[in-house]
Sequence to fold (445 residues):
Amino acid sequence: MEAFLAKFFKFKERGTDLRTEVVAGIATFLTMAYIIVVNPQILSKTGMSFSGVLFATVLVSSISSILMGLYANLPYALAPGMGINAFFTYVIVKEMGVPWQTALGVVFVSGIIFVILSVTKVRAKIVESVPANLRYAVASGIGVFIALIGLKEVGFIKTSPDTLVTFGGFDPYTVLFLAGLLIVSILVVKRIRGALVLGIVMNSILALIVTKVGMSQGLLDKPIVVPPKAVLNLPDFSVFLKLNVLDALTIGMIPPIFTLLFTDMFDSISTFLGVAHVAGLIDKRGQPINIDRALLVDALATTVSGLSGTSSATTYIESAAGVEEGGRTGLTAVVAGLLFLPFMFFSPILSFVPSVATAPILVIVGVFMAQALKNIDWKIMDEAIPAFVAFLMIPLSYSITQGISWGFLTYTAIKLLTGKSKDLNLTLIVIDIFAILALFLVSKA
Fold:
């Protein structure tokens, strides 16, 4: 079996082995497993069944990740996208008053359009048109974005009316986060294999100990880790195949379809670019390998999302955790996808892994991805300025799409106004037009 897997996934060509790929798959899964609970929490505010969306989330994440591994042979896992689920809930359903069944139809239609764009190689051309310095900036910006998510999850930083963000102060969560960050940092510095996975396990155990002691001594108002009340949950099919495609094909649904299309497209493309450069999975032209197949899988994942009963799936930036563990083939994605499956039935077990255990991992992954900044040519200002704008806007706007859109627009404007229009191409101009439309629609929403 190991020989077959080595040949099928090309272990030798990618410089990896079975153990490394399995550990990488576990790392990827653990850093993105939060979506199993978080996605239903957000989408249930539309009136959808929490358990129904949970089943859809697990189903989509598993199928699409396994397909990415088997068809594209890339270590990228997929799941319903954060940000996209918020757009689905708060804009399409709550603000526009669209029934969730029709909103699922919108997801499905956008997926079909994705498939067409992928099969006709339009999406691949879009990837190739992204300037190299912008790619490095996006990769680094995503890294800071990941770290920001981790810091925010545990309250280490919080919003401030005066300074936008500020230190959140000391409490059991932030102290545990600092301890966990130190543990993971030492494991990484010592180059311990499986450092991120081991860090999550150790941090979870530490959180459990602190909870037990703190609650027994009256030092905590509430437990940090809540043991699951049940182990088994049967799948809920209440939102499965409940989409309304006919109402999604009306004129009024064009703006949400377009915005969803644009946001999903550039979330996935920027993730491909960022993680591929970190993993070294690029060809001689500097393009991500197997990008055509990867984009097709990503498109199919969005289509399956609408059918299953959840917002659009996309390639996850947390895939960088598996890449940093040495994952270089599709087996990493397959392992991550398979690990989702049991939680169709055993979802309560995930409550044992608290955010204070995973947040330090996100910060460390941010460190790894930010290394791409060194590849930017900071002495060429017409390249450096747009790259910096993209890098800065991703975490500050809390949106990968905003970052890459403003990076594109700044790049084009500077090139045109400084007489360097030869550095532009038709695809990039078309992207700029769609970026302006998407930004306008988002601002109106």
In short: The chain has one domain: 2-444. The mean pLDDT is 86. The first strand starts at residue 78 and ends at 80.
